[in-house]
Amino acid sequence: MKELPKLKLITGEEVTLPKPTMKMWLQVAEYDQIDKDDWTLSHLMKEHAEIIAAMYGLESTDVIDPAEVLTAYVTAASYIIDVATEKLKKLPNAGAEDRE
Question: pLDDT at residue 28 above 70?
Fold first, then answer.
């Protein structure tokens, strides 16, 4: 398993993503399905920052470096999806439909 992602805050403090939860996975999955074609960059950044704050347990988005928002989201979201995918592969019937 990969190392948990870390996020460096504007204060210089570094926080580690907690162990992924179902809530985190649902938040990422639902957010990724939203059509964002008409969103402005500021709206996109605001939404990503809010999800990052929730995932990392931050009380505010004000401590997140704007230059890190998109990278931090992709890194954390990818980690959460990868963890769930790896667990699903270990289920006894994983991929059984593919073999039929």
Answer: yes
